Automatic annotation (TrEMBL), chain A:
<feature type="transmembrane region" description="Helical">
    <location>
        <begin position="94"/>
        <end position="119"/>
    </location>
</feature>
<dbReference type="Pfam" id="PF12730">
    <property type="entry name" value="ABC2_membrane_4"/>
</dbReference>
<feature type="transmembrane region" description="Helical">
    <location>
        <begin position="53"/>
        <end position="73"/>
    </location>
</feature>
<feature type="transmembrane region" description="Helical">
    <location>
        <begin position="202"/>
        <end position="223"/>
    </location>
</feature>
<protein>
    <submittedName>
        <fullName>ABC transporter permease</fullName>
    </submittedName>
</protein>
<feature type="transmembrane region" description="Helical">
    <location>
        <begin position="154"/>
        <end position="173"/>
    </location>
</feature>
<keyword id="KW-1133">Transmembrane helix</keyword>
<feature type="transmembrane region" description="Helical">
    <location>
        <begin position="125"/>
        <end position="147"/>
    </location>
</feature>
<keyword id="KW-0472">Membrane</keyword>
Automatic annotation (TrEMBL), chain B:
<feature type="transmembrane region" description="Helical">
    <location>
        <begin position="48"/>
        <end position="65"/>
    </location>
</feature>
<feature type="transmembrane region" description="Helical">
    <location>
        <begin position="260"/>
        <end position="279"/>
    </location>
</feature>
<feature type="transmembrane region" description="Helical">
    <location>
        <begin position="172"/>
        <end position="190"/>
    </location>
</feature>
<feature type="transmembrane region" description="Helical">
    <location>
        <begin position="197"/>
        <end position="220"/>
    </location>
</feature>
<feature type="transmembrane region" description="Helical">
    <location>
        <begin position="123"/>
        <end position="152"/>
    </location>
</feature>
<keyword id="KW-1133">Transmembrane helix</keyword>
<protein>
    <submittedName>
        <fullName>Membrane protein</fullName>
    </submittedName>
</protein>
<feature type="transmembrane region" description="Helical">
    <location>
        <begin position="85"/>
        <end position="102"/>
    </location>
</feature>
<dbReference type="GO" id="GO:0140359">
    <property type="term" value="F:ABC-type transporter activity"/>
</dbReference>
């Protein structure tokens, strides 16, 4: 299991592709620094930077790239066969991949969010954002890992979820918020450190329970799918 | 059967007819690209995403036309329609641009293409033209539906229809601007990687991460920074060009006296995107 995790991490970091993960967090920190340097009131920029960029773009997009990359690229390249034919329980493969995906996205999203939170309000807000981002990263990673097993176009489906479900519908149709990880993250951060900047729209128990359901349910279903995985050719 | 000295002539017929040149290759590549954007000639699976987006956009246009014919007021006019569809346009180019260029990189057909009488510039022109046409169709056809809705319910006869044409044509021109900006940026990003998944993620990330920059710049305590804020994001850049050309500052973006800079940046952005694409295809890797 540790070997699978090691190979996955090397696959993620070993190539130039990892540089894709840098610009988004840097932009987040940079914007927060600019606002701080010009002494703009945090109530004016906090929402745009922390929620609009941090929680709506950085966290889901990084989780999407990493979460679909750990397994999806192996499915694409066909190298998944080498792992599947080893005498390893499928559960261990999924857990190792999920550990790497969740860990990398959590670090890549939580660190810049923590810095932005500290600049916006204080250490308490920063910690709240970081904790919420870690919870969100785990839930997103489980979801996107599952997507890379149930469909051959995981990134596009993931983008539908981020752009259409959370982005477009989440704004106007209140019912979709119950199934939106972004809203859980906002609620968790808002309840831990109440500021005027975030506006949690679901209740805290709903957020915690649903985030856990996404994380655990996604993992279990992914293990189930990998148990009867069929290797097919390139999509048309 | 065969004379001594002849190795083997197994009777294949030589082609001696006319050979089509660059223009035909370009045309074929354009047509193939345009069909590929909407998944025509491919399996049903590759039609789901482009037609899903097109369906939503069409639905919005139909609702808009219906509301207007019933109540007489727009939900969106022709310009605001493009602006409000921006997320779907982002999603559309994220689906289609990797389909156009990343696939060729991954399957390694570029050396084959360029061993024909086809130049790198032709390849880029064909792909950009295909994507521009596709995005323009995505926005222009719904605008046409809105026009038809308006024209058939016109109360003032031909004059009303003519007035409506005068609204539609600038709306179409605005869609062309959208198409060029989005096509040049997204094709450039997609041409950097052979993996469609990464290309799609990259395109969405680039477009989405620019929007909050505008939000931040527009609250900075400087009037100039506020007026120039829209330059930071392609979506607000296009709105800024609209505000400049129509001389209006009530369209959700205030360009102040800097309207002309928006025009210049839009032009430079498109040109730079195309030139960088050309530079990208100076050299292609063979497998």
């Amino acid at each position: 299991m540790s070997t699978v995790a090691y190979i996955t991490a090397r696959g993620l970091f070993g190539r130039r592709r990892v540089l894709l993960l840098l610009p988004l967090p840097l932009l987040l920190v940079g914007l927060a620094l600019i606002c701080r340097a010009y002494d703009v009131d945090p109530t004016q920029w906090g929402q745009a930077v922390v929620q609009g960029l941090g929680l709506a773009v950085v966290l889901p997009v990084i989780s999407l790239i990493v979460g679909t990359g750990v397994l999806g690229s192996e499915v694409d390249d066909g190298t998944i066969v080498h792992i599947l034919t080893k005498p390893l329980p499928r559960r261990d493969i999924i857990l190792a991949k999920l550990l790497v995906a969740g860990g990398v996205s959590a670090v890549a999203a939580a660190v810049p969010l923590f810095i932005a939170g500290v600049l916006a309000d204080g250490v308490k807000f920063g910690v709240a954002l970081a904790v919420a981002a870690v919870a969100g990263a785990v839930a997103y990673s489980a979801l996107f890992l599952l997507l890379s097993l149930v469909t051959r176009r995981p990134v596009l489906l993931g983008l539908v979820y981020i752009l259409v479900w959370e982005g477009l519908l989440g704004r106007w149709v209140s019912g979709t918020r119950v199934l939106s990880i972004e809203q859980y993250v906002i609620t968790i951060a808002d309840r831990m450190a109440p500021t005027g900047m975030l506006d949690g729209k679901v209740s805290l128990p709903v957020a915690l329970v649903m985030a856990a359901i996404f994380a655990i349910g996604g993992t279990l279903f992914a293990i189930n799918r990998l148990g009867s995985f069929s290797v097919a050719g390139e999509t048309s | 059967m065969s004379d001594a000295g002849v190795i083997h002539d197994i009777g294949y017929q030589r082609y001696e007819g006319p050979r089509l040149g660059r223009a035909a290759v370009l045309g074929a590549l354009y047509q193939h690209g345009l069909r590929a954007t909407f998944g025509l000639g491919r399996s049903a699976k590759s039609k789901i995403f482009p037609w899903g987006v097109a369906g939503i956009v069409l639905l919005v246009a139909v609702i808009n036309a219906a509301v207007r014919s019933q109540t007489g007021t727009w939900l969106f006019d022709y310009y605001a329609f493009d602006d409000s569809m921006s997320w779907l346009v982002i999603f559309f180019v994220a689906i289609v641009a990797p389909e156009l260029v990343s696939r060729d990189l991954r399957s390694g057909v570029l050396p084959l293409y360029f061993s024909r009488p086809l130049r790198a510039a032709d390849y880029v022109i064909a792909k950009v033209a295909a994507l521009v046409t596709a995005v323009w169709l995505l926005l222009g056809v719904p605008q046409l539906i809105m026009f038809l809705g308006g024209a058939f319910t016109s109360k003032t006869g031909m004059r009303g229809v003519w007035h409506e044409v005068g609204l539609l044509l600038p709306g179409w021109a605005y869609s062309v601007l959208w198409a060029f900006v989005f096509a040049s940026i997204s094709l450039l990003i997609a041409s950097l990687t052979g993996k469609r998944a990464f290309a799609a993620g990259g395109i969405v990330a680039v477009f989405l991460m620019t929007a909050p920059v505008v939000g931040v710049l527009s609250v900075l305590p400087s009037r100039t920074a506020n007026d120039l804020a829209g330059l930071a994001s392609p979506m607000s850049l296009i709105s800024g060009v609209e505000a400049w050309l129509r001389g209006r500052n009530d369209l959700g973006i205030d360009v102040g006296d800097f309207g002309v800079i928006y025009g210049i940046e839009a032009f430079c952005l498109i040109t730079a995107g195309l030139l960088l694409l050309l530079a990208r295809y100076r050299k292609v890797a063979s497998l």
